């Protein structure tokens, strides 16, 4: 018998029944009774209102499937590696940022010492207790790169993906050295590779958990034919891959926008360079976490489609900093009291400069939000309210939405002119035919 290499399905558009079941379960689990995911005439699937929404109503709060804080933002903000809430204290947030930024620079030695005291909470700022934050929990694997707001978040992230991507002594990766090389390559080229690694790691760990459960249920049946076991294992891998299967995908090197400084005549060369970059990243990831039973996940085709899915569907991950709230509170104090307090706080505010209000910034894939189609005259938008202090996607109605109407958002700046909008949307592989575009084209 000739064995053929089995390939994971890349896109879920042809799995209509499975997709309907998956999204129905997802909506039920989030108690989002006001929406439905169902097929559209032009764009595969879309999100539809299952009730009337008024302008400003909350349409959806969607928990991310995978997300990450940008590497460059980690100096500015100390947040939970699972839910992305700010952690520690106002003192830790300010002191850590100033201390890390001051390393190696000719800043005032005395001020650096004060920053270090803040970072270790040995110096208390006035009124900081009015802005309490969860304590800092270390990574279970012992790495010094990821921290958490609680033991439950630490355990959830460990079981979800971090156990394979931890660089600490407790890591379950094949090689910490290889993993460090992969992370370094991603930080030097494009940190979207780190998100792809999370997606693959969570699929592997989910597969292993399903397989362990299945083995326990069938441990009395010893005489399985190897090919039957192989089919079962591949079926379990497909089940683990399912959440990623449902996202719209194109290969990263095909869908990434052509930079302004690259001439159209050099486009083919540029896309080959991007493909080569993905290949180099994948080879480093293989050396770090390859699981032979999950080999289909490590094909360049799958890797390219995972990154492409993020490129086309991700939302910016933004969580407002409590440091901004703290300094605004100080600024609103009565003048006499503020003058006294400013003698302590103003030097730190001056040192932070405009960076005092820098938010946690990253990128994340949200399974339900990613099903929302684009319109240049959308009826909903991603918007963080004052109470939204975590990494969930918050979608609000920006105009009244009737039951049965499709809920749309804008993938781009809808204030641009028609040709500019179409140029940007070309990267998504479609020409917008929303009422505004049709009217402007006419």
Provide a descriptive summary of the structure in words.
Pfam families: SET. This is SET domain-containing protein. Keywords: Metal-binding, Zinc, Zinc-finger. The chain is α+β, with helices and mostly antiparallel strands and 442 residues long. Among the domains are: 16-63 and 366-441, Beta-clip-like; 163-317, no CATH class. 44% of the residues lie in helices and 11% in strands. The chain is built from 14 helices and twelve strands. The protein has helices spanning 16-29, 90-102, 109-119, 151-165, 176-188, 192-217, 226-245, 252-255, 267-289, 300-313, 322-331, 335-352, 418-425, 435-441, and strands at residues 35-39, 45-49, 58-62, 66-69, 137-138, 147-148, 315-319, 360-365, 373-374, 380-382, 393-397, 406-409. The longest helix has 26 residues, at 192-217.
Keywords:
single chain, 442 residues, alpha+beta, Beta-clip-like, four-stranded mixed beta sheet, three-stranded antiparallel beta sheet, 44% helix, globular, disordered N terminus, zinc ion binding, zinc-finger
Average of the residue pLDDT scores? 89
Question: What is the string of SSEs from the N terminus onward?
Answer: HEEEEHHEEHHHHHHHEHHEEEEEHH
Structural class: alpha+beta
Work out the strand percent: 5-15%
Helical content class = 40-55%
Major sheet: order of its strands?
A: 1-2-12-9
Q: Ranges with pLDDT <50 over ≥5 residues?
A: 1-5, 13-17
The general outline is globular
* Tally of DSSP β-strands: 12
The largest sheet, given as strand count, sense and whether it forms a barrel, is: 4 strands, mixed
Helical run tally? 14
Note the gap between the termini: 61 Å
């Amino acid at each position: 018998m000739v064995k053929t290499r089995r390939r994971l399905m890349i896109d879920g558009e042809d799995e209509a029944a499975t997709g309907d079941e998956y999204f129905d379960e997802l909506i039920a689990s989030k108690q989002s009774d006001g929406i439905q995911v169902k097929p559209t005439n032009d764009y595969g699937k879309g999100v539809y209102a299952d009730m009337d929404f008024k302008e400003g109503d909350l349409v959806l709060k969607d928990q991310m499937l995978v997300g990450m804080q940008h590497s460059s933002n980690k100096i500015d903000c100390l947040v939970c590696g699972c839910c992305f809430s700010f952690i520690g204290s106002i003192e830790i947030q300010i002191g850590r940022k100033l201390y890390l930024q001051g390393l190696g620079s000719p800043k005032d030695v005395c001020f650096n010492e004060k920053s270090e005291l803040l970072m270790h909470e040995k110096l208390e700022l006035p009124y900081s207790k009015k802005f309490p934050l969860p304590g800092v929990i270390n990574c279970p694997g012992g790495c010094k790169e990821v921290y958490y707001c609680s033991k439950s978040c630490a355990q959830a992230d460990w079981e979800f993906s971090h156990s394979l991507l931890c660089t600490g002594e407790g890591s379950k990766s094949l090689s910490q050295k290889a993993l460090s090389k992969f992370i370094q390559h991603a930080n030097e080229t494009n940190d979207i590779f780190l998100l792809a690694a999370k997606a693959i790691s969570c699929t592997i760990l989910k597969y292993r958990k399903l397989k362990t459960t299945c083995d326990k249920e069938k441990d009395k049946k010893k005489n399985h034919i190897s090919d039957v076991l192989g089919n079962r294992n591949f079926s379990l891998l497909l089940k683990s891959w399912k959440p990623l299967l449902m996202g719209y995908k194109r290969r990263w090197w095909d869908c990434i926008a052509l930079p302004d400084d690259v001439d159209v005549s050099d486009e083919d060369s540029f896309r080959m360079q991007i493909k080569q970059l993905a290949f180099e990243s994948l080879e480093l990831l293989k050396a770090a976490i390859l699981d032979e039973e999950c080999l289909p996940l490590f094909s360049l085709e799958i890797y390219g489609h995972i990154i492409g899915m993020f490129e086309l569907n991700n939302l910016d991950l933004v969580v407002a900093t409590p440091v901004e709230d703290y300094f605004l509170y100080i600024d609103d104090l009565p003048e006499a009291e503020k003058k006294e307090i400013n003698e302590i706080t103003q030097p730190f505010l001056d040192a932070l400069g405009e960076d005092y209000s820098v938010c946690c910034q990253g990128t994340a894939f949200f399974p339900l939000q990613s099903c929302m189609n684009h319109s240049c005259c959308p009826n909903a938008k991603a918007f963080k309210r004052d109470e939204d202090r975590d990494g969930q996607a918050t979608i609000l109605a920006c105009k009244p939405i009737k039951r049965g109407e499709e809920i749309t958002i804008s993938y781009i700046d809808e204030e641009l002119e028609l040709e500019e909008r179409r140029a940007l949307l070309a990267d998504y592989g479609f020409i917008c035919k929303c009422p505004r575009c049709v009217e402007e084209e006419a």
